Amino acid sequence: MTDFTPDVIVIGAGLAGMTAAHEAVLRGRRVLMLDQEGQQSLGGQAFWSLGGLFMIDTPEQRRLGIRDSAELAWSDWQGSAQFDRAEDANPRAWAERFVEFSAGGMRSWLHGLGMRWFPVVGWAERGGELAGGHGNSVPRFHITWGTGTGVVKPFAELMVKHARDGKLKMGFRHRVNALIVEGGAVKGVSGDVLEASTAARGQSTSRSVTGSFEYRAESVILTTGGIGGNHTTVRKHWPIDRLGQPPKTMVAGVPDYVDGRMHGIAAKAGAGLINEDRMWHYCEGLQNWDPIWPNHGIRVLPGPSSMWFDARGDRMEAPYLPGFDTLGTLKRILSAGEHSWFILTQKIIEKEFALSGSEQNADLTDGGWMDVLKARMGKGATPAVEAFKEKGADFIVERDFDTLVARMNALTPDAPLDADHLRRQIRARDLQINNPFCKDAQITAINGARSYKGDKLIRTAKPHAILDRANGPLIAVRLNIITRKSLGGIHTDTQARVLTPEGAVMPGLFAAGEVCGFGGGGYHGYNALEGTFLGGCLFSGRVAGQEA
Fold first, then answer.
1. pLDDT at 358
2. Nearest-angstrom CA–CA distance, 52 and 49
3. Which residue ranges of the chain lie beneath pLDDT 50?
4. Signal sequence: where (predicted)?
């Protein structure tokens, strides 16, 4: 690359990095993009996502009768974020700007790039407590046609175009080890060239070094992601006071290259890190029967009807219901063990089980409306869910309840369950299921979900008794904790400039995406509203590219 002198170096070729590079090129800046993985991994973690975006007052919402506004969304965000630290000033400012963007120019910008959305808006992370607390008051989760691949595609195509036009150079298998700092300002980067790799996207790659590099530029943008693939670092920062002890066993929701190396490199150069104890991990993780990366986990996206039990066999109380309060449920699970259980029926799994990830949703990723109708409303669950039911280590299917529980105990012999205790709890729930009156919070939630036409159409089973053999077979699913997102990281101001521990600007250094908590060093606060990870990469990447 001796013939190319960049104005801006972007470290990380994921969604935030591509967005930043594109915006910089639009300003006439020459951009060098570096990534330790190969060209086949362009797009990073976003490629594997479901492609959900948090957007406000959209045509998709209005067609479904959903009344939303920036004011309502900001109220939900503040109730979820619970900003309470002095260092939350910049994250809060980023959050407020993101909500305005989500209610303003976000959809039209992405629509102009070619993105389109599934017409049924998802209602994720519903909260389940007071109006001023955590959760989305209305459905806001817009699934992009093509899922994560559909979000990545327009930006990947732009990278190819900018490279062809001579405005961008992409240096794959370039691992940055240090930031070059002179006179208190960042002037460039140095690191290792790794041997070429033909490993498929997401698979582990070699770390054998074949050379070294040093590049200089006026500005450097860090977009290297979080720590979810490095469980040692996850446990190091685990908020024991809020969530309890970290599990000894977790599955990985991201590839192993999501290791958080850049946090330490940036800190060594003088960057400030904040809110490292804030993180977002899911409770509904499955061991992938067909893994791509080490310890590969897949998350269940459940509807509201599965009965959820802790490791002791006690039914979890509201708001710790499927789809309502991720971190509250995580704390509740860890108070009793390290895993939990869904007990459900074939009717429930057919209507309500979805799996997160582009590769688990072929109808939405590669198909169209007819494919979706066939997969979501035909006989059986989706092919991906049926494959997990047949081959997944965490699934048990039986006609007889006692046999089901015996097999559950064989799967977790160190945490045996009492069949009579489970049966009593399920029977008590079943007694109230077909009555218009009830005192069961989960049944109330099911009825509430079915009042939303989107949920009734494709996400919520008709209420029925779980122990009625006509609704079987019975299904038990062991759920593991699955690591996913960092909610804190490098501290930035509202111009995406990296700040020192004292709050001073580090000249020449910017950050975007998960490495800076999606903006400011943690714009989610303590809780995410979903669709805000991809959206945060897009928004913070855009700002960084416009400022660097």
1. 87
2. 8
3. none
4. none
Query: What is the structure's pLDDT at 373?
Result: 66
Q: How many of the other CB atoms lie within 10 Å of CB of 207?
A: 12
Q: Is 147 left (phi over 0), alpha (psi -120 to 50) or beta?
A: left
Please give the mean pLDDT across all residues of the chain. Answer: 95
- Answer whether 349's CB lies under 8 Å from 385's CB: yes
Q: Is 119 exposed, middle or buried (0-12, 13-18, 19+ CB in 10 A)?
A: middle
Amino acid in the structure at residue 164: R
Q: Per the structure block, which two tokens stand in for 289?
A: 């029967």
* Tokens at 62, concatenated: 């209005």
Q: Report strand pairing: 31-35 vs 8-11.
A: parallel
First to last CA, the chain: 21
What pLDDT, on a 0 to 100 scale, did the predictor assign at position 498? 98
- Measured distance CA(284)–CA(488) in Å, rounded: 22
**41 vs 173: CA distance, rounded Å:** 10
Closest CA to 168 of 3, 2, 6, 13: 6
Radius of gyration of the chain (CA): 23
**Could you tell me the CA-to-CA distances from 10 to 23, 102, 117, 215 in Å, in that order?**
12, 25, 29, 11
According to DSSP, the β-strands at 31-35 and 251-252 are unpaired
Identify any residues that bridge with 222 across adjacent strands, giving them in sequence order: 11, 511
Size of the chain in residues: 548
Burial class (CB within 10 angstroms; exposed 0-12, middle 13-18, buried 19+) of 35: buried
What SS3 state is found at 351? helix
Structure tokens at 481: 């904790």
Contact yes or no for 517/278 (Cβ under 8 A): yes
Nearest-angstrom CA–CA distance, 323 and 128: 9
Residue 126 in tokens: 């519903």
The residue whose two tokens read 């008051």 is 137
Residue ranges with strand state E in 168-289: 168-172, 174-182, 185-194, 209-216, 219-222, 251-252, 273-274, 279-287
Q: Tell me the residue ranges of DSSP E strands in 111-167.
A: 141-143
Question: Smallest Cα–Cα separation from 514: which of 10, 45, 43, 151?
Answer: 45
Q: Residue holding tokens 């979805």?
A: 354
How many angstroms separate the CA atoms of 357 and 347, rounded?
A: 23
Q: What is the pTM of this model?
A: 0.96
Spatial separation of the C-alpha atoms in residues 180 and 157, rounded to whole Å? 31
Distance CA 363, CA 221 (A): 36
Beta bridge partners of 32: 9, 169
Q: Is 120 left (phi over 0), alpha (psi -120 to 50) or beta?
A: beta
The two tokens of residue 244 are 């309890």
* Distance (Å, whole) CA 3 – CA 12: 22
